[in-house]
Every structure is written in C-alpha cells, then in structure tokens.
Amino acid sequence: MDSEAGGAKLIDVAKRASCSPATVSRVLNGNPTVNEEVRERVLRAARELGYVPNGSARALRSTRTRLVGAIIPTLAHAIYATMVDGLQARLAEKDVSLIINTSTYDIDLEYEQARLLVERGVESIVLVGSLHRPETLALLEQKRVGYVFTYTSDAAEPGAAVGFDNEKAGRTAARYLLDLGHTRLGMIAGITQDNDRAKGRLDGFLKELAAVGIDRAKVPVLEAAYRLDDGRSRMGELMSRPQRPTAVFCGSDILAAGAIKHCHDNGIAVPRDVSVMGFDNLEIAELTSPELTTLEVPARDMGRLAADYILASPLQRRHLRQRELAIRLIVRGSTAPAPAR
Amino acid sequence: MDSEAGGAKLIDVAKRASCSPATVSRVLNGNPTVNEEVRERVLRAARELGYVPNGSARALRSTRTRLVGAIIPTLAHAIYATMVDGLQARLAEKDVSLIINTSTYDIDLEYEQARLLVERGVESIVLVGSLHRPETLALLEQKRVGYVFTYTSDAAEPGAAVGFDNEKAGRTAARYLLDLGHTRLGMIAGITQDNDRAKGRLDGFLKELAAVGIDRAKVPVLEAAYRLDDGRSRMGELMSRPQRPTAVFCGSDILAAGAIKHCHDNGIAVPRDVSVMGFDNLEIAELTSPELTTLEVPARDMGRLAADYILASPLQRRHLRQRELAIRLIVRGSTAPAPAR
DNA sequence: TTGTAGGCGTTATCAC
DNA sequence: GTGATAACGCCTACAA
After folding, report:
1. Which of A99, A141, A252, A289 is the best residue to mutate to test the B interface, defined by the most B CB atoms within 10 Å of its own CB?
2. Between the CA of A21 and the C1' of C3, what is the distance in angstroms?
3. Distance from chain centroid for Cα A184
C-alpha cells in the first residue's frame, strides 16, 4: 500500500507512471509539450495514489503562492462580510485562496497582520479605506505585494482602489434632506478616528450644508460605534437638545435602525417628527418600521471587482486601477418633507 | 542599500550579524540557547534589513504551516460570519492564519475546497455541520488534517464537534409553543437537502409535536432559503391554508423576519393572530416589530471554541473533542398564548 | 554556545 | 518530448 502517512509525493507519482518527476510536474501544470499517452498515465497514477501537491514546496520553488490576503475591520458587520463573500467567491473560481484578518479598526494591528500576510506569501492584499500606517504600505511596496483599497475611491500610488467617494455620498445625503425642506439637521457618524470613510461621509454632509449657509458649528454631530445600542443612545442625546433636528443622517443602517428604535420607544414619530436616513442598504433597512431611506453601497460588487483587479494581468490592471462605483439613493419610508413651522 | 527586490533572506541577516544562519534561525524561533549579545545583534540586523521570513520555506522544512482552513456555507449570513469572526480573532492571537472558503451549501464544492486547503497545507479545517461527503473526511484523515464540526454536537470519529443539538433545539421550540397552548402549528424550515442542521431542527420540532399526539402529517412544513423574501412568501402560503396555524416556528431569524413582514403587509396581527418564532438570535431579532422570540445560537463562542480545540495540544484535545453548548430561549414580543377558540 | 551540511518537495534550466 | 540537475529559503541534526 502506498498510503504512507501524509501521502504520496510527486516522485512517487513519477515512479508509478514510469517517467521522470519533471514530466509529472509538466502534466500537473498543464504544460502542453507532453505526449498524450504519458499524460494519461501520470494522471491515473496521481489519482490512484491520492496525490495532493505540496503547496509550500511549489510556492518556494515558483514564487507563486496563489494566496491573497484581506484585512477588514470586522466580519460581524454585514457590509464587510458581504464584500468578503464576493471577493472569496471570485478568487475561488481561479483556485486562489483567501486569508482573512480582522483589524477591529486598529491600524497598528493592521500593520502586524499585513506583516504576517507577507510572511505567508500572499501575492496581493485587500484593505479597507485609504488610511493606513505608512509602514504598512511601505512594507507591501518593498515586498512587491500588490494592494487594493476598498470602500474608497482614493488610490495610493502603486495600489488600486475599488469603491466610492465617501464625501460625495455625504453630500448626496445632505442634498436629499435639504431638498425635502429640512434646515435643522443632525448626524450620527461612525467613529472618525483612523476611519477615513466615516470622516469622508461626515465632511461631505457638512460641506453640502455649509454650501447653503448652514454653519457646521450649528449642526449637531455625534459619533458612535456601529452598534444598534449606540445608535439608539446617540439619537436620545440628539433628540433631547433644545433645538431638535427634523432630520438625522446616520453613517450606517445599524445606527439608523438604533435611532428609529429610540424614536419608537419614546413616542417620536418617524418620519413625521423626524426623518432618519441610513447608509449601506443592508438587509436590516427593510426591517425597521418605517423602512429605511438609505444609500446603497455595492459591497459584494466591490469584493468581486477587487478580485478582478487582483486576478488581472499587469497590463489589464492599468484599466482597473481606480474604479469608482455609483452609490444609489434608496428612498423608503423613514424620510419625509420637513414639518411646516 | 540592501533593499534588493523582494527583500533580505535569513542568510543576509546572518552576514550582517556576523554569525551563521543557524544562529539566526535559533533567535527567530525563540530558541533560548543563544548568547544574549548575539541575539540582539541578530534582531537588530533583521530589523535593519526589514527581514520577513519566507513562510513557504519554513513550512516546507518544518511541516508546520500555521494555517487553518474553514469552509462555511456563506459569509452573507450573519450566523456564519460571526462564527468566523470569533474563530479568526482567537487564531490570530496565536499568529495562526485562517483561509476561508464558502461552499454555498454544496457538499461537492466543499470537497473541492477541502482538497485545495489540504494542498495549501492547512493543519486543521473547520466545517459546518456533520454531513459531508465521505471523500472529504477520508481525505482529511489520510492527510492527517484535523477537523472540527460546528453548529452540531455530532462528532465523527477522529474529528471534534463544537456546537449544539439541533434536534433538541427543535424540540425546545415546539415545547415552548405547546406550553403557550398552541395546537395548530407550522414550520418554515431551511432547505433540508444536504443540511443536517435544518433537518435536525425540523425533526425535533415534529417529534415533540408527535409526542403530544399531533400527527406530523397534519403539520404544515415549508422549506425556504435563508432570505427575507422567502420567509415572507412561505408565510403567505402558510396563512392562506384553510386551517391557519396559530404559531409558526422558523428555522432562522431571517425567515421569521420575512414572515412577520408578510403579516404586517396583510393585516395579520403578530402575535395576536399568529405567533412567530425565530432561530439564531441575530441582531435583526430586535428590529422586527414586535421583536422576535427566538433561540440563541452562540455563534461567536463556537468560533472561539473551535479555535481553542485547534490550538490545543493532542493531550488537551481529548477533553475538548465534543462540546455541546447551550442554546437559550429568548422570549420577546412575537409569541403569545394561543387565542381562545 | 555556535557552525556546517543536508534535505524538505517542487519547478526551471539545461541537455539529450 | 523527456530526463538529469540544480536551486528555492529555511530548519535541524550533528559536529565542534
């Protein structure tokens, strides 16, 4: 029995197929310069032995690992999990494996993880946002590991970006609420510390308001972690101010759902008393009552397109380096015209 | 400049530290039998050169890859994404990397993915459920790759299981609804084809009903993919039967949320007209109105405990081989006593 | 405590 | 079309 512990190696296949290891390697790698009859002998021998190539040896010799890494803030948030789902699916079609790490929004931890990924030999890395430690990008460049930013349209020089313009998104939200006649607006933003996406959305929102003469100092802004409870409590703070806003833009559907929950529990009618707007268009946007007006982020598409970039040849990559995806306004029941004074 | 393309290797560090490669290796691997002064010289040299070890070479030589694989149905469902989040976090603490694959509930695809993971050299694999192709488990056993089932408490011989008893869970749900006085019950189950968890839940539910004399042939059961819309439409079918159930158990909170949506849209009051019960206790369970009565699945804990098993020594593993976790009944507003006849 | 040498399993470069 | 042969970068006896 050839079923020795661990299993057969390439040389065992060669022996069984009565040829040289080189030929086996050629067959396994689809090299066409092999006699048809020999090829079949090799394939049969490999099957019979239950041969599985040793990826480490292959990687060491060929410098191609077929490994890609991704560092995302967390998998507990659907917006990232969905992106990774798309990324993985597309990579798997090409037999590329994905190593995934969660940074919990900590860019120092992200650096450590990038190091480990480089050590594992990943050929590319998918990152979230464009804000990273300089050491992180320097490392990737020095080690010739390609990288792709997601959820942003700002690409850093040698890297690529697949995403959208967060500032523009913030402006779109503001514009929509302004057009409904609101003048007292507030925002529950994500934590902007080390988070360029949350910051971009906030900046865009305030800029659009400033453009119509609403002073940013007058706009109540609270930051919150992306959790239902945080959205709820921040909404409580916002609504207990002397000058209640009539419309609140939230940096995520989770926060918006929490905000609506607060309103429910406190007899505040949405959207009659206050309009609430979300961001992401997650599944939960259809579960609140009223359902959530929000901006749709194409999470799965971002993952797929990031994969496409990674799988592309250096030549094709030029065209794919910067992809700004559209984010769509989804109007549902949680927003309404400003109440008459 | 030593910043040659790709980067320094172990031997370069040795040269710069004026010692042998063996000593560098010892330092890097924490071997204590190294002179303190030499150790520091090596560490400094490594830092100055920006040395990153080559994982492939290391793995090839030592047969330890520090790689673990996971094959889950999808990341688009929070119940799995959360488990993976816990798994990854715990593994990362020990510098073990996680390769993740989604099988889309297809056990043939799962086999292909297991093969690829073995090729990558993973030391263990985390699987969902206990139903797999025999070839899959045979491969893992032959290649000496440990495996852990999750979301189930049935362990296959050499493998481990971290999860819960799905049948018991189904019985718990039935018991709760029976105790509320319901006698006309229905279920919207997940797709049971190739899914032992969905099947277990369904079987348990029906068994408990049978135990009180309710014939399973009389219990309407529909299967649905885990999507809001499917839950909604199945609920429509259930409620348009001549003999409407007064209580419906859903195999997932997603389905239950969809079911409640159907009721909303069609003037059916929950829980007055019909009680709806979910499964998983996802975040969305707090977003439906009324909020969802459900059974809590400890997804993150399962991931963490699976990691603990994987990281444990062979000796410790004996104790961790079968872990049945408790699933907790969470009573909220979507269930109520059966209406008086 | 440190250095030398051999080999892990594969692929690439030569010849033939 | 096929077969030797030499690396790939590292770890680990073993020797010193």
Report:
1. A99
2. 34
3. 33
Of residues A3, A78, A142, nearest to B50 (C-beta) = A142
Nearest CA among A275, A243, A237 for reference residue A256: A275
Give all domains of chain B, ordered by start, each with its CATH number. 1-51 (1.10.260.40), 65-164+298-325 (3.40.50.2300), 166-296 (3.40.50.2300)
Q: Which nucleotide is nearest to B25 (CA to C1')?
A: D11
**CA angle, corner B200, sides to B116 and B182, nearest 5?**
150
User: pLDDT tens digit string along A108-158?
Assistant: 999 999 999 999 999 999 999 999 999 999 999 999 999 999 999 998 888
For A284-313, what is each residue's pLDDT tens digit? 999 999 999 999 999 999 999 999 999 999
Residues of chain A in contact with residue B60, where contact means CB-CB under 8 angstroms, are 54, 56-57, 60
pTM above 0.90, yes or no: yes
Sheet-wide strand order for A67-72: A322-324, A160-163, A146-150, A124-128, A67-72, A97-102, B97-102, B67-72, B124-128, B146-150, B160-163, B322-324
The answer to whether B59 CB sits below 7 Å from nucleic acid chain C is no
Contact with chain A for residue B261, Cβ under 8 A: yes
